[in-house]
Amino acid sequence: MPILGEPAPDFEALTTQGMVKLSDFKGKWLVLFSHPADFTPVCTTEFIAFSAIAEDLKSLNVQLMGLSIDSVHSHLAWIRNVKEKMGVDIPFPIIADLDMKVAKKYGMIHPGQSSTAAIRAVFFIDDKGILRAMIYYPLTAGRFMPEIVRLVKSLQTTDKYGVATPANWQPGDKVVVPAPKNKEEMDRRLSEGYECKDWYLCFKKI
């Protein structure tokens, strides 16, 4: 099972856009997501929705990539069907993981849901190849795309400014200043110009 803060499990896999390796994305962020199966209703709505945020993610230096336990021919037929029937191009690669090698490395197979289909998982891998966040959904629940974009922006903001983001944070909102590490920092905190609710909870604009 992958662990936050550690290097993301390495892989090499066939996709709808050729062979890819995790190392190909060094210097970029990668949002890797799994779906249960091609030609299924919820997955089709998700792929249309993921396609809609692909440009937003690209502007954040993020590559989007899908995965399911289907063949590359199935993937190609499905994305052609989505283009013909729904008028949507799928711009990102989709891993064909018939042997489940990538799915098993990333803990995408949950027998309580299915032993032959990946659950709906999302993995956020930074530009250094470190796994920064992951979200798991059951087979029956489609994902909320604004949260995926928001989480990328939160991670990039905390990296850039050395802060944290509070509950319901949206880009442009105030961020949380890290808690003081000692008494001197605690005593100084209230005079540093932050908006403080108490010594341990302070906000600032960036």
Quickly list its features:
Glutaredoxin; alpha+beta; Antioxidant, Horf6, Chain A, domain 2; 23% strand; 5 helices; 2 domains
Q: What gyration radius follows from the Cα positions, in whole Å?
A: 20 Å
Number of helical elements: 5
Instruction: Quickly give the CATH architecture of the largest domain.
Output: 3-Layer(aba) Sandwich
Helical content band: 25-40%
Major sheet characteristics? 5 strands, mixed
- Unreliable spans are none
Rough outline: elongated
How many domains, as an integer? Answer: 2
Measured between the Cα atoms of the first and last residue, the distance is 35 Å
Based on DSSP secondary structure assignment, what is the total number of beta strands? 10
At the first level of CATH, what is the class of the largest domain?
Alpha Beta
Q: Roughly what fraction of the amino acids lie in strands?
A: 15-25%
Question: At the fourth CATH level, what is the homologous superfamily of the largest domain?
Answer: Glutaredoxin
Please state the oligomeric state of the protein chains shown.
single chain
Strand order, sheet with most strands = 5-4-3-6-7
Q: Decide which structural class fits the backbone.
A: alpha+beta
Q: What string gives the helices and strands in order?
A: EEEHEHEHEEHEHEE
Q: Residue-averaged pLDDT, rounded?
A: 95
User: Looking at CATH, which topology of the largest domain would you report?
Assistant: Glutaredoxin
